[in-house]
Design brief:
By secondary structure, the chain is of the alpha/beta class. The chain contains 7 helices and 11 strands.
Amino acid sequence: MRLQPMAIALVHHPVVDRRGDRVCAALTNLDLHDLARLATTYGLARFYLVIPAAEQQALARRIIGHWREGFGASYNVDRSQALSSVVIVDRLEDAEADWRQTSGESEALTLLTGARHAVGLDFAAAQQVAGQQSVLLVFGTGHGLADELYLPARQTLQAVRSGGYNHLSVRTAAAIILDRLVGESGRVVMPDSLKTAPVLGNSSSSAVAT
């Protein structure tokens, strides 16, 4: 199946902790590497790292820089390629704005995920939507996205294994969801804006592109 351009975002704020309090979760090296590799494996154009804390952004840039420049880039070319998709932004709204410009689609769909939100598009319906318009698929760290992000303008994807035990790592959930949407034979179209150039820039003033 041919799918329109797709991107993922990993939100670190606003998310909730196990008590339901609104927090900013810390960046993890594992999430950064694994989700970048996942996005590249399935042909996604962007991986947005949504994290407003300046020190956490600096850490992300340092990790990415190690694998994108100098010895790291030549030592592991596959990792360097995967991390080229990462764009660091302060807010989900910044990721949405950049994705609309990058995909060339002003009506690109933001599709939220979360184990606490059982009601939403099922995977068959989401796949049909992805075949017709660009999608930004949003995941949350901690214990999931804060309720304030679930706006009427954004749609929600049905949770993985809703109704039973459901406490997957964000990396595992993202892998399952992307495989259900794209599958083994699916092909995600690359935006025209990225067909001839690597990911090096971002038009959003609040974004730090790598």
